[in-house]
C-alpha cells in the first residue's frame, strides 16, 4: 500500500492538496461504508496547509457557471473524488449529511487539539489549515502512529484570539454565532468582511501560512450568507 499512498499524495499535490495521514478503524467501530458498501477499514484525510490550493480553485471557478452554490465544496468533491476513483476509494466530505466526525478523525490522525476558536491548532500551520475530504478504503492501510505534538495554545498566556473581536464572539463559554453574524453583516463589520476574522488573525502561530486577504474575504462572505 506504500506505493498507493505515495501515488495518492502525488495526485492530490497537482491541485495543491496534501495527504494529512490516516488510521485504521478498530474492529468494533461503526465505520462508514467503503466504495463496495462494506464497512471501511481505513481512512486517509485530505486537506490543505495555508492557501496553496487557492490558485487551482480559482482557475477551476473561472470555468464554471456564475452563481454556482458552495463552489469550494464542489471543487473539493471533484478533485478529491477523481483521486478516490483512481485509487479505488470512496470520497467523503465534511459537509456530507449526516455529518461524519471529521474533527475527531483529524485529532486521531495528527494528534491535534482544538484552539479556543474551535479550529484545530497545528504545531506548524497554526490556525491556517483545513480538511477538505477523506478517502475510505476497504483495505487495511498500515500507517504510523501520530507524533506527540505540543499544543501551542497551552503555551499562550495572553490568548489574543479571545480579545480582538469587537463583539466578543469567542469566549471561554463558546462561540456566539448570532453576535458574530450580525456584526459581520453590519456596517461595522467591514474589517472582518475584507480581512477575515480578527480573532483568528490575532493568533501569533503559523503566521507564515496565513490565508491572503482575498481567501479570507471569500470564506467570510460564505459565512455571512448563512
UniProtKB/TrEMBL annotation:
In Swiss-Prot or TrEMBL terms, this protein is called: 4Fe-4S dicluster domain-containing protein
Q: Which organism is it from?
A: Rhizobium loti (Mesorhizobium loti)
- At the top level, the lineage of the source is Bacteria
Amino acid at each position: 500500500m506504500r506505493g498507493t499512498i505515495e501515488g495518492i499524495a502525488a495526485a492530490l499535490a497537482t491541485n495543491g492538496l496534501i495527504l494529512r495521514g490516516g488510521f485504521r478503524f478498530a474492529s468494533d467501530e461503526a465505520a462508514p461504508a467503503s466504495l463496495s458498501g462494506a464497512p471501511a477499514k481505513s481512512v486517509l484525510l485530505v486537506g490543505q496547509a495555508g492557501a496553496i490550493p487557492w490558485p487551482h480553485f480559482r482557475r477551476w471557478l473561472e470555468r464554471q457557471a456564475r452563481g454556482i452554490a458552495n463552489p469550494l465544496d464542489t471543487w473539493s468533491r471533484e478533485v478529491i473524488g477523481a483521486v478516490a476513483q483512481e485509487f479505488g476509494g470512496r470520497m467523503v466530505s465534511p459537509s456530507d449529511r449526516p455529518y461524519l466526525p471529521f474533527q475527531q478523525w483529524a485529532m486521531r490522525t495528527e494528534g491535534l487539539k482544538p484552539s479556543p476558536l474551535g479550529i484545530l491548532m497545528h504545531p506548524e500551520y497554526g490556525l491556517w489549515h483545513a480538511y477538505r475530504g477523506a478517502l475510505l478504503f476497504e483495505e487495511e492501510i498500515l500507517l504510523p502512529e501520530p507524533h506527540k505534538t505540543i499544543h501551542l495554545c497551552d503555551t499562550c498566556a495572553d490568548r489574543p484570539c479571545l480579545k480582538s473581536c469587537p463583539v466578543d464572539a469567542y469566549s471561554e463559554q463558546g462561540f456566539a454565532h448570532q453576535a458574530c453574524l450580525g456584526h459581520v453583516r453590519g456596517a461595522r463589520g467591514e474589517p472582518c468582511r475584507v480581512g477575515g476574522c480578527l480573532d483568528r488573525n490575532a493568533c501569533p502561530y503559523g503566521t507564515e501560512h496565513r490565508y491572503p486577504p482575498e481567501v479570507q474575504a471569500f470564506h467570510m462572505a460564505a459565512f455571512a450568507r448563512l
